[in-house]
C-alpha cells in the first residue's frame, strides 16, 4: 500500500542502455560534426566509419577519447536502442534489411527523449510529493511508458508527445521536494 502522498509505482521500461542488444542505432542515426566531440563529419542515417562492417561493434571503442570521440562516451540512449531493436523491430536489423535503416533510426530519435523523460520521472517517483504533484507524475509516467507499444506510431500518438512536451515545465516544480544527498 502506498504511503500518504504516494501512489502505486509505475512499471518503467528498462532505462539503461545495453549496446549488446541494439543494432548500433546511435552510430547510424545521428550526425557528427567534426569538432571537440567527434573527430569526423558524419551524416544522419549513415553508419559511423568506425562501426564494424560485420557486427554492431565499434572498432575503436577502447580508444574513443584519445581518438576524439568524447561525444560517444557521453551519449546514452537510456535503453531506447534495445527497445527499438528488440520490441519495435522484433530483433530485425538494418543490416538484415537495409530498408529498415531509416525506420529504425527514426524510431530511436522518437524513443530516446521519451526514455530520458522516463529516467527523470523514475527518479521523481522516489520523492515525497503532495497528492496533486504525485498524481501528475503518475499520469505523465503512465502516458510516456506506452504499455504494449509495438509500433513507432504508438510513441508518436498526440497524448504521448503532449506528455513529453510537459516535462520541461513539470520538472522544476519538483525542486522543493528534492532532498540533497549527504
What does this structure look like?
- It comes from Phaeobacter piscinae.
- The protein has seven helices and no strands.
- The longest helix has 24 residues, at 101-124.
- The model is unreliable at 1-7 (pLDDT under 50).
- By secondary structure, it is mainly α.
Mean pLDDT: 93
Per DSSP, the total helix count is 7
Helix-strand category: mainly alpha
Per the principal axes of the C-alpha atoms, what is the gross shape?
globular
Query: How many domains, in number, for the residues?
Result: 1
Q: Approximately what portion of the residues adopt beta-strand conformation? A: under 5%
The first-to-last residue Cα distance is 29 Å
Give the topology string: H per helix, E per strand: HHHHHHH
Helix content: 40-55%
Query: How many individual β-strands?
Result: 0
Please mark out the parts with pLDDT under 50 across 5 or more consecutive residues, or reply none.
1-7
Largest sheet: none
Radius of gyration computed on alpha carbons: 18 Å
Protein name: Pentapeptide repeat-containing protein
Amino acid at each position: 500500500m502506498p504511503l500518504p502522498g504516494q501512489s502505486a509505482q509505475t512499471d518503467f521500461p528498462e532505462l539503461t542502455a545495453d549496446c549488446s542488444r541494439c543494432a548500433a542505432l546511435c552510430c547510424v542515426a545521428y550526425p557528427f560534426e567534426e569538432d571537440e566531440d567527434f573527430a569526423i563529419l558524419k551524416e544522419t542515417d549513415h553508419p559511423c566509419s568506425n562501426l564494424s562492417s560485420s557486427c554492431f561493434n565499434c572498432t575503436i571503442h577502447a580508444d574513443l577519447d584519445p581518438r576524439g570521440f568524447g561525444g560517444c562516451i557521453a551519449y546514452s540512449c537510456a535503453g531506447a536502442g534495445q527497445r527499438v531493436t528488440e520490441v519495435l523491430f522484433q530483433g530485425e536489423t538494418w543490416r538484415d534489411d537495409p530498408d529498415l535503416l531509416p525506420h529504425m533510426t527514426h524510431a530511436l530519435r522518437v524513443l530516446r527523449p521519451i526514455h530520458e523523460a522516463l529516467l527523470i520521472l523514475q527518479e521523481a517517483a522516489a520523492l515525497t510529493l503532495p497528492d496533486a504533484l504525485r498524481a501528475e507524475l503518475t499520469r505523465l509516467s503512465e502516458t510516456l511508458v506506452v504499455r504494449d507499444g509495438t509500433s513507432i506510431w504508438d510513441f508518436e500518438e498526440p497524448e504521448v508527445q503532449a506528455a513529453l512536451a510537459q516535462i520541461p515545465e513539470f520538472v522544476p516544480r519538483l525542486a522543493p521536494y528534492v532532498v540533497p544527498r549527504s
